[in-house]
Amino acid sequence: MSSKGTTKEAILTTSIHLFNKYGFDQVTINQICKEINVTKTAFYYHFKSKDELISEFFSFDNMISNTDLLDILTVTDYADQAMKAMEIYVKHMVRFGVEMTRENYRIHLRNQVLPLDKGKSSLLNSIIPTLVQRAKDAGHINNPASAEDLLDSMCIIANGVILNWAVTDGKFDVLEEVRKRFEILLVLKDE
């Protein structure tokens, strides 16, 4: 791994640790740099701001792990695979808590985009629509909308449920609610 990759990863990991420990607004770029002994120039080489750092951390493609992939691939039903792939984002939000989720949405809303955006993710842009189409072809999904429209709706549902979860201080099982809403949207056929 190059030192550039290592520095970027160190900045990202350290920043998230500090944000969780002290709160996003309480952590400065100077504090991040001091913690890992890098210059502000090095920080700004990789990230333009703390906001960009949060956006990168929560980008869909950065979240998927080998364990997530195995979990998706062990399921033989394409509709369930598509839902599990979408749920990766939800699990990541829950893992990093309500405060970090709020920061992520605050940043994205200020930039007038939603965090879960298929245009920014190869997984969302190509793999999930393929799984949805395969599920439609196999008769597991009964919603007549196109795979692309279903993916758009899944992204909107996930964003809405996650945002509601963050606003209500995590007072409900967000993963269970997202799955319930996906099942309603997709009109899943009972096996």
From TrEMBL:
Gene3D superfamilies: Tetracycline Repressor, domain 2
Recorded GO MF terms: DNA binding
Feature: DNA-binding region: 28-47
Pfam family name, one: TetR_N
Keywords carried by this UniProt record: DNA-binding, Repressor
The keyword DNA-binding is assigned to this record: yes
InterPro entries: DNA-bd_HTH_TetR-type_CS (IPR023772), Homeodomain-like_sf (IPR009057), HTH-type_Tx_Regulator (IPR050624), HTH_TetR (IPR001647)
Residue ranges of every copy of the HTH tetR-type domain listed in the record: 5-65
Descriptive protein name: Transcriptional regulator
